[in-house]
Amino acid sequence: MSYPSDTSIVVEDVTKTFTLRYHRTFKQVSVALLKGRDLSDTFNALDDVSFTVKQGESIGLMGLNGSGKSTLLKLVNGIMKPDSGTVLTRGRIAGLIATGAGFHPQLTGRENVYLNAAVLGMSERETARKFDDIIEFAEIGRHLDAPVGNYSSGQFARLGFAVAVHVDSDIFLADEVLAVGDRPFKKKCMEKMQEIRDSGRTLFYVSHAAASVRKMCDRVIVLENGKVGFDGAVNAGIKYLKYEDENPDNDPDDMGDLDEELGADI
Amino acid sequence: MTEHVPVAEQPLAPPSASNGLLGVFGRRYLLRLLVRREISARYQGSFLGLLWSYINPLSQFFIFWFVMGKIIGMGDKAENYPVHVFAGLIIVHFFVETFNAGTRSIVRNKALVKKMAMPREMFPVASMLVSLFHVGPQLVILLVACLATGWAPDPVGMVAGLLALGIVMFLGTSLALLFSTANVFFRDFSSAVSIMTNFVRFGVPMIYPYTLVADRFAGHTELYLANPIADAVLLMQRAFWTGTTDDPAATALVHLPDHLLSRGAIALGASVVMLVIAQLVFSRLENKIPERL
Ligand SMILES: Nc1ncnc2c1ncn2[C@@H]1O[C@H](COP(=O)(O)OP(=O)(O)O)[C@@H](O)[C@H]1O
Ligand SMILES: [Mg+2]
Q: Where is the ABC transporter domain (chain A) (predicted)?
């Protein structure tokens, strides 16, 4: 099958199956076998999901906890492969998945920046060139040379986000990144993500905050128990989710409200 | 990796595309970082740091040399017994370290594996390279000991030494690949591996000379020599130990099996085949790694 040249992401008939309980002991397995019980209890975290994204689109991915958002981003990112169906992407991918960065707890912030950047495909020279910008953005000061295992979850997220936004990516994934940051940092992240969006990169933004999705995205995909429940315009998507009801007088252009919603982005 | 290419010129492709071990060597900068990381992480929070990687083999060496050589009297069965032991110990230690650390490598790096897309073969390969890095200084100690006992390098010996290291590199990496995935599914594997590696020390002619095997197991030596690590140890002794004895040619004739180099070449070939098989198995299981960590 061929796709237009401005296609950025293709997700086609994708299903991802997980097992509910993996680590069974020898005893549990033998008891189950003796009683003739079924050992496998699997479920579809993603069930026949299909959509395509054009380069430069910014998608708000919404849905309740456990609906499969992070799993979908892991497939798009290439961390996992679908059990059936196809995922295709064009260009370099960066971002944060499930709020955390791939940092090694024993390494210092500095070492992790280099390692993380290398995994994302940056060369040593490129990293060295951007290092000061990354550190300035993360604002973690002297903690840079402390092991990230000792960071607060906010500091951890800051550094991860700082590295991810400084990669020259074509696709940017942001999975509940703002959940743990403090208010000034959230604002800064929002601005940076808008900058990313405006530079023509594809943006995948997972958030429960209707106002920030409205501000960032031009399309909403809602996942419901691993299925695409809605795919279309932002306002209709938010209505579909009925998130509005809890916040009836929400004005999309009001920064004050946005701040409030960002505060509630958990 | 190259600098950024405009997106329109790049193809639509599966994001997880990794071409296994070849992909690993396409990303040498990342591999170098991981190796450096692992070396520093292994000794993090330790005052003596890298020195431990000498203390460990040296202490084993003294135990074997004293208990086996002096008390049990193995020392009389082989000339320059300490060199005999140490040449073998370098190989055994290289193998055991690769196998053990490699088996744990993916689980130990789960923070990265769960969150980042990269060829996962990176981790076992990095473990092997870290162990190889530790071989360096041990070789220096061995060389000093050999030169002190009148050893001079010879071409056949050098080939034998390289074969020995090559066998352990390939075999160690293939076992590390296989068991690092197995360990993701059942953590029992890392415990099983450390027990298995305990046997390696006694299954190779390190603390006892090969002649003992040839005497006691006459007729079954082929079975003994089917162990590639035993071949690697013998090759290492051909490279360093025989040259330190009074009559190297006679020592090689008495204490080493015949056709040692061809045996080594076959063992190396078998190790390469093992690596290919390990890669195939790894590629099949790799899909399930991130969700099982
Ligand atoms: N590695 C895993 N093994 C088993 N189940 C998983 C795994 N990862 C996620 N799940 C399950 O898959 C479902 C979707 O998870 P996720 O994609 O993280 O949801 P969310 O939309 O909140 O990000 C959840 O029910 C979660 O429990
Ligand atoms: Mg999630």
A: 9-250
Q: pLDDT digits over B111-122, tens only?
A: 889 888 889 999
Mean pLDDT (whole number) for A233-249: 75
Decide if the complex's ipTM is over 0.90: no
Q: Which of residues 83-122 of A touch B (CB under 8 A)?
A: 86-93, 97-98, 100-107, 111, 114-116, 118-122
- The DSSP-derived string for B74-114 is GGGTSTTHHHHHHHHHHHHHHHHHHHHHHHHHHHHTHHHHH
Q: How many domains would you assign to chain A? A: 1
8 Å CB contact between B181 and B289: yes
Instruction: Please report the pLDDT score of residue A114 as a whole number.
Output: 93
What pLDDT score does A265 carry?
A: 47
Q: Which of A43-52, A101-110, B180-189, B261-270 has the lowest mean pLDDT?
A: A101-110
* Contacts A53 to B, Cβ<8 Å: none
**How many whole angstroms separate alpha carbon B90 and alpha carbon B93?**
5
Round to whole Å and give the CA distance between A6 and B7.
9
When pLDDT is cut at 50, 70 and 90, the band that residue A263 belongs to is very low
Distance from CA of B31 to the nearest CA of A (A): 9
Domain assignment of residue B25, given as a range: 19-37+50-292
Q: Which atom of ligand 1 is nearest to the CA of A98?
A: 23
- Ion ligand 2: residue ranges with CB closer than 5 A: A 70
Range 125-154 of B in CB contact (< 8 A) with A: none
**How many domains does chain B contain in total?**
1
Q: What is the CA radius of gyration of chain B?
A: 21
Q: What is the DSSP letter of B11?
A: P
At residue B188, the 3 state secondary structure works out as helix
Q: At residue A223, what are phi and psi to the nearest 5 degrees?
A: -100, 135
What is the C-alpha separation between A11 and A87, in angstroms, rounded? 5
User: Is residue A153 a part of any domain in this protein?
Assistant: no
In a domain, A183, yes or no: yes
Domain that holds residue A26: 7-91+170-260
Q: Which of A21, A22, A119, A169 to mutate to test the interface with B (most CBs of B within 10 A)?
A: A119
Give helix B52-63 / helix B122-148 axis angle, nearest 10°.
60
